[in-house]
Automatic annotation (TrEMBL):
<dbReference type="InterPro" id="IPR050278">
    <property type="entry name" value="Serine_Prot_S9B/DPPIV"/>
</dbReference>
<dbReference type="Pfam" id="PF00930">
    <property type="entry name" value="DPPIV_N"/>
</dbReference>
<dbReference type="InterPro" id="IPR029058">
    <property type="entry name" value="AB_hydrolase_fold"/>
</dbReference>
<dbReference type="InterPro" id="IPR001375">
    <property type="entry name" value="Peptidase_S9_cat"/>
</dbReference>
<protein>
    <submittedName>
        <fullName>Prolyl oligopeptidase family protein isoform 4</fullName>
    </submittedName>
</protein>
<feature type="domain" description="Dipeptidylpeptidase IV N-terminal">
    <location>
        <begin position="189"/>
        <end position="223"/>
    </location>
</feature>
<feature type="region of interest" description="Disordered">
    <location>
        <begin position="1"/>
        <end position="38"/>
    </location>
</feature>
<dbReference type="GO" id="GO:0008239">
    <property type="term" value="F:dipeptidyl-peptidase activity"/>
</dbReference>
<feature type="compositionally biased region" description="Polar residues">
    <location>
        <begin position="19"/>
        <end position="37"/>
    </location>
</feature>
<feature type="domain" description="Peptidase S9 prolyl oligopeptidase catalytic">
    <location>
        <begin position="305"/>
        <end position="486"/>
    </location>
</feature>
<dbReference type="GO" id="GO:0008236">
    <property type="term" value="F:serine-type peptidase activity"/>
</dbReference>
<dbReference type="InterPro" id="IPR002469">
    <property type="entry name" value="Peptidase_S9B_N"/>
</dbReference>
<dbReference type="GO" id="GO:0006508">
    <property type="term" value="P:proteolysis"/>
</dbReference>
<feature type="compositionally biased region" description="Basic and acidic residues">
    <location>
        <begin position="1"/>
        <end position="12"/>
    </location>
</feature>
<dbReference type="Pfam" id="PF00326">
    <property type="entry name" value="Peptidase_S9"/>
</dbReference>
<feature type="domain" description="Dipeptidylpeptidase IV N-terminal">
    <location>
        <begin position="115"/>
        <end position="187"/>
    </location>
</feature>
Length: 487
């Protein structure tokens, strides 16, 4: 981790003023996003925190910025791995400032970006003058301000952080040229209990406090809490949004509002959370989306199930996958469908699956393992054999292929292809750098060898998930048509 001092006059000088008024910033040239003079308009705090940031219609870099073709390759890959498809201002932060100006929101995509491996920033008070902030990276073996591949794929999506006053920036330097062996030191945990820490929100070194978010009241909720390292019992915090001038409470943000502004126009109902028992008695949670039967007709309904191995349930729940990928996760999906049939919410003979990435793998695996229950599946960018996926992820659950060849064989979709009777639609981008197209190609070879029919939808210019608008529309239309024809 590196920290750069903005007070020193050197190449890495990063001093920035980040509190310019919205009125001082350039507006986008696109007629579709032009708005009236908003300087005198007042956006309520509730609108800002519960709805898309109003500034998304006001700001853009000088070169436009509202097109993925207008960003660096590093930023394209970051957005790909974070599954981010939104344009305009997609993230923002609140910053402390001594300025008397009222604007305190800073759109992060404009606060910095990575080009050719080096971190660059924009100077807000000089018409977005672009300035290189770091030097020495080359974009291939050494990068600055960009989370390494494994971090982006698993948990951390960013590689640089502005200080609250905007005077400093901390960034990661990743060097792939020589990666030495090093020993991982494990220290004892400072929390315990049947819940998990999701994210470290902050550390107050002077007071000896750690702030974090976690599932203290169960996996269906997330709470902010604080903990003194000398204690084992965290204390939940109630978070309020306050006026920075007089300190008055504007609203609480630790409770979900009963009505989100604008959502009532869509006439949508929230999902019903249901409890289902796995075959070993483990509690599984499902989200049941039940549309208005008077408008959309009777069941079956769309259902999402949290099978064993899913995130946010703790190490024991996730640990069920150890050496068991393709077993317990697929069996839990079967348990969920049997529950739906028993409740009259699903119709036997008319059940399909749709998943992407790991979900794509699970869709194909379930279709092959339980041909009497599932009639069709759409498998998007699937891992089809774990001996071909990245070692960091795979070996965490499966160990080495040389040590557990049986689990690797059973966890391969190709091992079960001969039992498949339902219809399968495979969808994959041919330049997918996460789950390589080779996975789909290997499954196609196995399907051909077994004489099993399949359908294939490929996107030659897409990566792990289609991102271009026309490609997504085309894909969704094909998916809808496949389900209507197959069920």
């Amino acid at each position: 981790m590196h920290s750069v001092d903005g007070s020193k006059e050197k190449k890495t000088n990063l001093k920035r003023s980040r509190s310019s008024s919205l009125c001082d910033m350039p507006t986008t040239d696109s007629p579709a996003t032009q708005t009236p003079d908003r300087c005198n308009d007042v956006f309520s705090i509730k609108e800002i925190v519960q709805s898309p940031l109003p500034a998304i219609f006001i700001l853009s870099p000088p070169d436009g910025g509202l097109d993925e073709s207008n960003i660096s390759p590093e930023e394209k890959l970051r957005r790909e791995r974070s599954r981010e498809r939104g344009l305009g201002v997609t993230r923002y932060e609140w910053v402390k400032t001594i300025s008397k100006k009222k604007t305190i929101m800073v759109p992060l995509p404009v606060g910095g970006k990575v080009v050719d491996g080096n971190l660059q920033g924009f100077q807000f008070h000089s018409n977005f003058e672009q300035r290189q902030l770091t030097y020495g990276a080359n974009g291939s073996t050494v990068t600055h301000g960009l989370a390494e591949y494994i971090a982006q794929e698993e948990d951390r999506k960013t590689g640089y952080w502005w200080s609250l006053d905007g005077k400093f920036i901390a960034f990661t330097e990743v060097d792939y040229s020589e990666i030495p062996l090093f020993r991982i030191m494990h220290q004892g945990p400072i929390t315990e209990g049947d819940w998990m820490v999701e994210q470290i929100a902050g550390i107050n070194e002077a007071a000896g406090l750690v702030y974090f978010t976690g599932t203290l009241d169960g996996p269906l909720e997330s709470h902010r809490a604080k903990l003194c390292p000398d204690e084992n019992s965290p204390c939940k915090l109630l978070v309020y949004l306050c006026n920075l001038i007089d300190g008055n409470v504007v609203m609480s943000i630790y409770e979900q509002p009963s009505i989100v502004p604008g959502i009532e126009k869509l006439q949508l109902e929230p999902p019903e959370i249901v409890d289902i028992q796995a075959n070993d008695g483990t509690r599984l949670y499902g989200a049941l989306y039940k549309p208005d039967a008077t408008r959309f007709g009777p069941p079956p309904y769309k259902t999402l199930l949290d099978n064993r191995g899913s995130a946010r349930r703790g190490l024991k729940f996730e640990g069920f996958l150890k050496g068991n990928i393709g077993r317990v996760d697929a069996e839990d999906q079967l348990t969920g469908v049997e529950w739906l049939i028993k409740k009259g919410l699903a119709k036997p003979g008319h059940i399909g699956l749709y998943g992407w990435s790991y979900g794509g793998y699970l869709s194909a695996m379930v279709l092959a393992r339980f041909p009497d229950v599932f009639q069709c599946a759409i498998s998007g960018a699937p891992v089809t054999s774990w001996d071909g996926y990245d070692t960091f992820y795979t070996e965490k659950y499966m160990g080495f292929p040389s040590e557990d060849a049986e689990s690797y064989e059973y966890g391969s979709v190709m091992h079960h292809v001969n039992k498949m009777r339902g219809k399968l639609l495979l969808v994959h981008g041919m330049i997918d750098e996460n789950v390589h197209f080779r996975h789909t190609a290997r499954l196609v070879n196995a399907l051909v060898a077994s004489g099993k029919p399949y359908e294939l939808l490929i996107f030659p210019d897409e990566r792990h998930m289609p991102r271009r608008h026309r490609d997504r529309i085309y894909m969704e239309e094909r998916i809808w048509e496949f389900f209507e024809r197959s069920l």
